[in-house]
Amino acid sequence: MKYFICDDNVLFAEDLARRISAADNVGSVEVFTTLSSLMFHIQGGERADAVFLDIVNKDGSGLEAAKKIRQKDPSIKIVFVTGYVEDFSQAIFDCPVGSEPVAFLAKPVNDKYLNAALSKLKSAEKRAGVLIPVGSSRNTSYIDAGGIIYIMSERRQMRIFTESGEECCYGRVADMMKLLPDSFCRCHRSYIINLDKIAHIKNKTGVVMKNGSEIPVGGVFSEAFMDAVTRRYAGSPFLGV
After folding, report:
1. Residue span of the structural domain in which 73 resides
2. Which residues contact 100 (CB under 8 A, 6 or more apart)?
3. If we measure between CA atoms, which residue out of 8, 72, 2, 67 comes closest to residue 37?
């Protein structure tokens, strides 16, 4: 996992970074001493799996920063850190839906509670779905890939059909495939399907999805598509392929 730490106490931040690195020797840690520098990196597209965020910083509120971080990238998990437990122990639970912290650590941070926070972060990472950005660069929202049934490309527009409706964004099929998990397969030059949402394979030239949509299977993609289906459902009689 990749961790960001933001705390205007340099000695505390560096010590916390060392302790996190010792506890998670396959992770990486980057320290920021101002909220402005942290937000500059995140708004610029640099991401982390989790941010250890001091609630009281010289240049602003960690609570407000958490909202902005989660608006930019909902997959980033927040751990609040503070030396003012009595002042903020209730306030952190009034966070807007979606910006709630995974953990809350009081200074000085006890190893037992730090390790518990790291365990919660890893558990949350395993449970988290893959989030796909949609909309424009100025107005981006995210949808869970697990709810996508299929994606259709029309010129430069990607029409994303989900269990709850339809979303649109601009892009290319090849670039979209890079964002999606292994449960997705390209079956046609204009279509990507979620293998977990297949209802029935009619033949090697067509597939019916769980929402009733019939999707073509292009000849160039047929062999790779059938291989993907076989791997996904190995040992299962579900499709009879």
Report:
1. 2-127
2. 78, 92, 93
3. 8
Q: Report the CATH number at residue 140.
A: 2.40.50.1020
3-state secondary structure of 10: helix
Please check whether residues 81 and 12 belong to one and the same domain. yes
pTM: 0.56
pLDDT surpassing 60 at residue 128: no
The pairing of beta strand 60-61 with beta strand 56-57: antiparallel
Task: Kindly tell me if the per-residue pLDDT of 161 is higher than 60.
Answer: yes
Domain end, chosen from 93, 108, 127, is at: 127
Angle at 56 between CA 53 and CA 62, to 5 degrees: 45
- What CATH number has the domain bearing residue 92? 3.40.50.2300
- The confidence score (pLDDT) of residue 239 equals 46
Q: Cα separation of 239 and 236, whole Å?
A: 8
> DSSP assignment, residue 241?
-
| Residues in contact with 14: Cβ distance below 8 Å, sequence separation at least 6, in sequence order | 31
In terms of domains, do 59 and 158 share one? no
Q: Which residues contact 31 (CB under 8 A, 6 or more apart)?
A: 4, 5, 6, 7, 10, 13, 14, 17
